[in-house]
Every structure is written in structure tokens, then in C-alpha cells.
Amino acid sequence: MTLKQYSWKDGPDFIQQHSVAKHRILEAYLAAYFRTLVSSPNQDVLKLTLVDGFAGGGLYVHQDTRKVVQGSPFIFLKATREAEYLINKDRHKPVRLLVDYFFTEADPHAHKHLDKVLREAGYGPQIGSGIYLEHARFQDRADAIIEFIKKKSPRNGRSIFALDQYGYKEVPTHLMRKIFEALPSAEVILTFGVDSFMNFANDGDQVKDLLDGLGLPDIFAGRSIDEIKASDRDWRLLLQSTLYRRLVENCGARHFTPFFIRNRGGHGDYWLIHMSQHHRARDVMTEVHWANNNYFIHYGGAGLDMFQMVGYDPAHDSNYLKQSALGFEFDDVAKHASISALNEHIPRRVYADDTGISFGELFATTCNSSPASAQIYRESVGKLLDEKVVEVIGADGAVRRSAAQIKANDQIIAPRQRALFAG
């Protein structure tokens, strides 16, 4: 199947609801990101660079409603403006947000349209000074952008890269690894057209050359696609899960969370993968998934399983369709299922070591394979406390009695009068 690529030759192109959902996640994450970074009352400046590697033409028309929809460059700009207002409205010492923007776009019509609508929106004076609008491929400009960020923020390289590629070929893993190695506080939000990849793989084309180019050699351990399809009933799940694992591993990010977005027509499914070097950033994105209450799909379960993916389906978007959603969502049912699964898995981790494990380490070392946020982990441990399955001891020796009291450096241990745990 050939996907239709956007074109701004005659003005804003049409956008489908599943892509609007992607923008909604980006917008919600940016709002939470700013709140997390500006927490100290003594902070007076925040340096940040926002990179939109596949910026598009700036504006779209919704395919169903025919309303104009703003693209990611405007989402970046709007998020900063709103964050500055919200952060400073009750502060005695205001925070200056020193934010630079890189909007790169290879398509000439999209680049021209983005330049036009940014100027019409009043951003003309900033283009070339704070807003860097470049007609180029992101791959060709990545090194220069990285160097700009290193010079601006030499200690941490604080930045967000939104890499909303068309398909799956444009952002090889070695490029993302370069970002994380050079910029310790960088985060990447990557789209990967898994449905397009699967269709390509199904056709028996040059999959090996493609994977080598992405920096993913021999991910199927010498097995051919045809062999996997012939021997595994759930071959599609096997291919996707293997591809996902190796993709995030080879990018060099310590923490990641995937969001599986499904086209309403059943074609064009893709991953929205958030990657970072710190579990706190991962937790913020997970909280965004729960807060947006989108329909998600699990490949593996609600606890600490080795592989899981979450997903969005327009058919289950109550905000879009104004009707109740069905299935296993980021809702109370999913929350209870996650807590129940964690209540089975966490004691096994705790009992595996006589000294137990700190809450912070438990979350940091297992969160990549769970849909749960840190707050849900905390509620699970609180329930285990109530049931006397574990004990939680603070650094000062204080015994925690409830989930609300649990801190990152608290130690979770087996109870002194250890009951038999069926594991």
C-alpha cells in the first residue's frame, strides 16, 4: 500500500484524526515538560531548544470537520508562550524562557507554506533570530543543530527533537544515538511507520539492506521473513516486537515509552516513541497518556512484561466521536488492571534480594516494560503495604504507612514476618 504524502502546493493539505491525536500528545507533553523543568522558586532562566525535524507546512485542514488545524511548529511556539504565562503568573521572581526553534523541512512547497503562515501569524521578525526555518533534510542539518545546542547549553544540552518522519527510513538509529551521546538532556519523539514497514517486509523486498541502513542489522537472528511467517502464527506481532526492541536499544536511550497510533481506516499504523536518558521524563510522557485517556493496545500485559505497546484508535476517541470508548483504555479499568499486575510482579523483585529495592530503583529499572506511571507504582506498593506483603522503610528508618508517604529513596523490603508469597 502506498501512503499519501502531504502536499502544500495549493495551500493547507488535509489531515486525518489519528495525526491530530499525535499533535494532541505533543501539545500535552510540552505543557507537562515545562512545568517539570521550572520547579524551583529561585530559578530565573530556562534554556531550551525545540527541534522539529520534519516540520511540514504549518497548517492543515481536518479531513472530516474541514476546520483549520495547526501543525507542530505552531504547537511548539504556542506551548512556550502558554508555559511562560502560567509559570510566571504567581511567581515573585519571573523565569525567562530562552527557547530557540529549528524547523527543518525538505519539501519546497511545505517549506514555502510554513514560511508564509509563520509570517502571517506575526513571527516574521524572529525568523533567523530564534526561529531557524531551514529548507533541508533533517539528516543533513542534524550535526549543525547538535553543535548549536551544545554551545547554547554546554552542561546538559536541554532539547526536544520531534522527528515526525514520513514512513520509517529517514532517521537511522545511529543519528539518534549521536543526539543522546552529545546532549545528555535531549529527548526524542519519533514516529515510525510500522505498518508501512510491515507491508514492505511482506513483499519480500530488500529488507536486509533497509534494516542495515537503519542501523538494525540481523535483528531476526538470521531468520528470513518468509521463515518467520511460515513458522509463527503471530508472526506480525513477533516482527513488530523484535523490531521495536532493537530500535530503542540501538538508539542509545535509557528510557522510552511507545504510543501505538492506528489509522481509522485500518492502514498506516505507526509508533510514536518517546526516548530520553532519565526515567522522570519517561514518567511525564506516561502521565500524558493516562491523562488523555486514549484507547491503547497491549502486547504483553499490564505489569512488568518484557514487551508492551500502547495505542490510539480514532474509533475509540470519545473526544473526537463524542461517544463512549470501548476496550482496555488508559482509564480506571486499565489502572486497576495495572495495579493488580504490579501487585503480583513487584514482590518478586523485592524478595529477590534480602535488602529489597528502593522505590526509585524499582521504577527506573522496570518502567520501560510497563504502562504504569510512577504514581500507579506508588499506589501498587501502598496496596502491598496494606496487605502486609512488603514493608517500606525511609532513609531515616521511618516506617511508611501509606502510598502517599513513599519517596524515591525509600527501601521496599520483605516483611519481617514474611508470609508465603505464591510466585
Quick take:
It contains 14 helices and 14 strands. It has helices at 17-37, 72-88, 108-120, 138-152, 173-182, 194-202, 207-214, 225-231, 235-251, 279-292, 318-321, 332-351, 359-366, 374-386; strands spanning 13-15, 45-52, 59-62, 68-70, 96-104, 131-134, 159-163, 186-192, 255-261, 270-276, 311-312, 357-358, 391-393, 411-413.
Describe the overall structure:
With 423 residues, the chain is of the alpha/beta class. It folds into two domains: 280 residues, 3-Layer(aba) Sandwich (Rossmann fold); 74 residues, Arc Repressor Mutant, subunit A, CATH 1.10.10.10. It has an eight-stranded mixed β-sheet with strand order 6-5-2-7-8-10-9-11, with helices on both faces.
Under CATH, the homologous superfamily of the largest domain reads Vaccinia Virus protein VP39
Strand order of the biggest β-sheet: 6-5-2-7-8-10-9-11
**Major sheet size, sense and barrel closure:** 8 strands, mixed
Question: Distance between the terminal alpha carbons, to the nearest Å?
Answer: 46 Å
Q: Quickly give the structural class.
A: alpha/beta
Number of helices: 14
Shape summary: globular
Q: Which CATH class of the largest domain is shown?
A: Alpha Beta
Low-confidence stretches: 295-304, 320-328, 419-423
Report helical residue fraction: 40-55%
What's the order of the H and E elements? Answer: EHEEEHEHEHEHEHHHHEEHEHHEHHEE
Notable traits:
Rossmann fold; Arc Repressor Mutant, subunit A; 2 domains; three-stranded mixed β-sheet; 42% helix; 16% strand; disordered C terminus
Draw up the topology in text:
Layout lengths: L12 E3 L1 H21 L7 E8 L6 E4 L5 E3 L1 H17 L7 E9 L3 H13 L10 E4 L3 H15 L6 E5 L9 H10 L3 E7 L1 H9 L4 H8 L10 H7 L3 H17 L3 E7 L8 E7 L2 H14 L18 E2 L5 H4 L10 H20 L5 E2 H8 L7 H13 L4 E3 L17 E3 L10
Parallel strand pairs: 1-3, 2-5, 2-7, 5-6, 7-8, 9-11
Antiparallel strand pairs: 3-4, 8-10, 9-10, 12-14, 13-14
